[in-house]
């Protein structure tokens, strides 16, 4: 198969020009180094267009400008690599090659051997500089794209040295740019391979870095999500305990007055909707002032806690509420209980407190006892009916229990239907 040099040069032009597009089309904001490499490929295209026009345009263009463009191509590749690796480029390598070729080549138009040796020395040094910076940064560079680039620049260095060797051997006619001979074919075939390695290496390097950045970012995001989840769990737990605290009596652990008011109102509305009775027990420790006076305030607190424990253990249904109504007074709201069921519960509580046999020498019963008033009402459909009516009735029953000698349960005697809030 015949391979002629002008075709190889055209192939280099087509490849360089074609590579400019994909390199330039990648999002440049994320990869500014690609802009530099796109310019490098553009400069390479220009250089080879001018080489192909050797003899048809002035030597200033096809020799001087073409070689300046080659030097500029390598400068731009070098700058792109420095940018990619976030390294400060050498000022000397960024400017000197172009100046040297641009200043010396017009003087060497008739001196091919010197021109080739000088030009190829500059290109070899530039390509080698790219290899060196890639090798130096290989540890911190992710992926394998860098090795393709290293291989490409090593080939470019070797081909320049090969041409210097050919020039030094005196085979000048072998180096004329458009002539087809083994040295020329080897040179440009190797440069085509190098160009392929540049293109794939650049694409791979940028892709690999983007992938690793993405993985790092998604890792960070996951970590932040986990932290956020932890914070939200803690916040939820704190909110729960705050809510719990806001409805709990700190001494007895039962519901506090606020909670009692809320539950009573809710149950009142539920009973109204269901047309069912709502029952209430008001429980008061007997002669508690005397207990405090006799045993001290601390013992009084302990007594309150013990009575609270009896209440808590006496409740059977999940929705039943026991609350501290105030001072030494407690309230129980049993769900779905009628007057009789509430009375039975009250009596069980009354007996259980007495059964604790907590000594109370100043009580007529000789032990801590409670009096309980029980009431139950079917809330009327009238919007003005209020749960306070139920409280008043239970309170009146409690008063009678106290009057009747304490340590007993009294039940509301009025008909169990509330019409309006009584006066
Ligand atoms: N230790 C203690 N005492 C309390 C607490 N809250 C209220 N008391 C006391 O409970 C007593 C209530 O006394 P009274 O309202 O006179 O009623 P009582 O002595 O129980 O008499 P009866 O109810 O008629 O049997 C007062 O001495 C209050 O100081 C508390 O949290 N701890």
TrEMBL record:
<feature type="transmembrane region" description="Helical">
    <location>
        <begin position="147"/>
        <end position="168"/>
    </location>
</feature>
<feature type="transmembrane region" description="Helical">
    <location>
        <begin position="60"/>
        <end position="80"/>
    </location>
</feature>
<keyword id="KW-0812">Transmembrane</keyword>
<feature type="transmembrane region" description="Helical">
    <location>
        <begin position="37"/>
        <end position="54"/>
    </location>
</feature>
<dbReference type="GO" id="GO:0052621">
    <property type="term" value="F:diguanylate cyclase activity"/>
</dbReference>
<dbReference type="InterPro" id="IPR043128">
    <property type="entry name" value="Rev_trsase/Diguanyl_cyclase"/>
</dbReference>
<feature type="domain" description="GGDEF">
    <location>
        <begin position="276"/>
        <end position="414"/>
    </location>
</feature>
<keyword id="KW-0175">Coiled coil</keyword>
<feature type="transmembrane region" description="Helical">
    <location>
        <begin position="6"/>
        <end position="25"/>
    </location>
</feature>
<dbReference type="GO" id="GO:1902201">
    <property type="term" value="P:negative regulation of bacterial-type flagellum-dependent cell motility"/>
</dbReference>
<dbReference type="InterPro" id="IPR050469">
    <property type="entry name" value="Diguanylate_Cyclase"/>
</dbReference>
<feature type="transmembrane region" description="Helical">
    <location>
        <begin position="115"/>
        <end position="135"/>
    </location>
</feature>
<feature type="coiled-coil region">
    <location>
        <begin position="221"/>
        <end position="248"/>
    </location>
</feature>
<keyword id="KW-0472">Membrane</keyword>
<dbReference type="GO" id="GO:0043709">
    <property type="term" value="P:cell adhesion involved in single-species biofilm formation"/>
</dbReference>
<protein>
    <recommendedName>
        <fullName>diguanylate cyclase</fullName>
        <ecNumber>2.7.7.65</ecNumber>
    </recommendedName>
</protein>
<dbReference type="GO" id="GO:0005886">
    <property type="term" value="C:plasma membrane"/>
</dbReference>
<keyword id="KW-1133">Transmembrane helix</keyword>
<dbReference type="InterPro" id="IPR029787">
    <property type="entry name" value="Nucleotide_cyclase"/>
</dbReference>
<dbReference type="InterPro" id="IPR000160">
    <property type="entry name" value="GGDEF_dom"/>
</dbReference>
<feature type="transmembrane region" description="Helical">
    <location>
        <begin position="188"/>
        <end position="206"/>
    </location>
</feature>
<dbReference type="Pfam" id="PF00990">
    <property type="entry name" value="GGDEF"/>
</dbReference>
